[in-house]
Design goal:
binds 2'-deoxyadenosine-5'-diphosphate, 4 strands, binds magnesium ion, about 150 residues
Amino acid sequence: MERTFLAIKPDGVQRGLVGEIIRRYEAKGFTLVGLKFMNVTSELAEQHYDVHRERPFFASLVEFITSGPVVAMVWEGEGVVGAARKIIGATNPLTAEPGTVRGDFGINIGRNLIHGSDALETAQREIALWFKDEELVNWQPHLTPWLRE
Ligand code: DAT
Ligand code: MG
């Protein structure tokens, strides 16, 4: 089953939006399979944002993601990678659609509340980077027959 990696960034935690953000994925019908509240080391931050290494904002990105605790999560479900990104909204919260997490709660690209994997392979890479196998919980929600034919 498809899985994606999501992280509520330090601004989402500091602003008390953890419950609100998780609620959206639960309510949508996706399944939580991993969750941890943690500080991010600069090593992990640099590996996570490796594709942005040459971008001018790389240093501030690493500084920000390591500035306070984050909620790292793995969610499961058919089409979850793309759908989770839709729930997140566009990278810049100022232009992100209302109804998305960034569109509803953010105003600045450097404080955009949440990370979500952008493709299936990215998701696999990020899940392996952030979680050990034994930290992921394989379970069958009883809700399944009410969510899918
Ligand atoms: P996303 O988080 O929507 O996948 P991304 O992968 O292009 O966006 O960039 C990673 C993060 O880097 C993004 O969440 C915020 C920051 N970022 C991206 N573009 C930026 C820019 N032009 N100026 C400042 N920060 C930026
Ligand atoms: Mg990205």
